[in-house]
Amino acid sequence: MALVEIRDVRKTFGKIEVLKGVSLDVEEGEIVTIIGRSGSGKSTLLRCINALESVDSGEIRVEGQKVHAKMPDLKKFRQRVGIVFQAFNLFPHLKVERNITLAPLLTGRVEKAKARVLAEDVLTRVGLADKIDAWPEQLSGGQQQRVAIARCLAMAPHLMLFDEVTSALDPELVGEVLKVMEAMAEQGMTMILVTHEMGFARNVADRIVFMHQGRVWEQGPPAKLFANPGTPELKSFIASAK
Amino acid sequence: MRSFSLIDFVSLFAALRWTVALVVLALLLGAPLALGLALGRISRFAGLRWAMAALIQVIQSVPLLGLLFFFYFGMPVFLGVQVPALIAVTVAYTLYTAAFLGEIWRGGLEAVKQAQWEASACLGLSAWQQFRHIIAPQALRLSLPPTVGFLVQLIKGTSLASILGFVELARAGQVVSAATFQPLLTYALVAAIYFALCLPLTLWSRSLEARLDGSR
């Protein structure tokens, strides 16, 4: 059984059908990168996976559990599925440590006495152990995004979703975030990414999923897909992304 | 007629207690209501949003004097009960405070980015935990200056209670002025006391604004 099973998912916003029957499986430990033009439904699909959006038809299962916005143990489910956003969304009124430890403390994942150690641990994993007492606004965009990743890691998620996490960063800051993600990939984290970083998609992903007009247009291992795109749409997308 | 003496000073300051008491009562009772109204205004239930908005609209549209008259003179007519002045005045100021603070806080809550709710929900926090730990502290910061501004309005607004014969600062001024025939001196003194009460708040509000605006 795949960790994530997506079956014929459809989603409409107003009159626009954003997802037109998407099916996709993601195995445990797999790193899947979703690419495609703006408006192809990538981000919506990602948001459906952790029930930030509910699907109109079809179904999504994570670890066998059907996902929807009114699922009974939504909070427990969200603790197992981390998501990192394009805009970081750190809590500006809390220091880095509290940003990280708030949710583990409130959900009973860690005791008060061990919270700081947990924060130190996950910050070390993103290379920011020295920023534990900083305010979010004192950090660069890249650092903020790494704290956001650390905040997710503190919940020990089984699956991580990344929604264009480098798109809001200055070019010179993209690398540090990608490096953290590469390290996570090496440690066997199951990851689904929406990204415009073709280099990262090519080097780190196990599988590329190309979405076009609300459908999975084409998918496969990066080497094959980038060398031999099977559809003219992917071909032109790769050409334009270079 | 007698000259302005120490006793007049004392009676003014004694009446000041009632001004302060009215403000404290209005805040104590009005603030929780205001929070309820603010939460109702951002609720996902349209009916509740609509009802709260209507209630706030009505209270805000009636002059404070009208509210006071309604509860003091109106209640005996409509309900056949004579409400003690203190209760009538307290109810009026409480509703007034609830409506205005409610709108101020609603604005503060809505000014916190929607993504903050989303980000905290995605960490597995309950709706209450999201509000309590993520949204409310940020909204409070944004709302503090206008909240203090309203507090100043409220302090000065308590002078209207004098019309119902309630002996707070302004009414005591009337009494002293009538007894001493020194209205200029008396009302100057009354004004000075209001000023002394409001100025620290205004200054505090301004320093808060400076501190909360932008970086720490």
Task: Write up what this structure looks like.
The complex is a heterodimer of chains A (242) and B (216). Chain A contains 9 helices and 10 strands. By secondary structure, chain A is α/β, with parallel strands linked by helices. Chain A starts with a strand and ends with a helix. Chain A has a single domain, classed as 3-Layer(aba) Sandwich (Rossmann fold), CATH 3.40.50. By secondary structure, chain B is an all-alpha fold. In chain B, helix 1 packs across helix 4 (85-111). Chain B starts with 5 loop residues before the first helix and ends with a helix. The mean pLDDT of chain B is 90.
Show the helix and strand layout:
The complex is a heterodimer of chains A (242) and B (216).
Chain A: E1 4-13, E2 16-26, E3 31-35, H1 42-49, E4 57-62, E5 65-66, H2 74-80, E6 81-84, H3 96-106, H4 112-125, H5 141-153, E7 159-163, H6 171-186, E8 190-194, H7 198-204, E9 207-212, E10 215-220, H8 222-227, H9 232-241
Parallel strand pairs in A: 3-8, 3-9, 6-7, 7-8
Antiparallel strand pairs in A: 1-2, 1-4, 4-5, 9-10
Helix pairs in contact in A: 3-4, 3-5, 4-5, 5-6
Chain B: H1 6-41, H2 46-61, H3 64-79, H4 85-111, H5 114-121, H6 127-157, H7 169-180, H8 183-212
Helix pairs in contact in B: 1-2, 1-4, 1-7, 2-4, 3-4, 4-6, 5-6, 6-8, 7-8
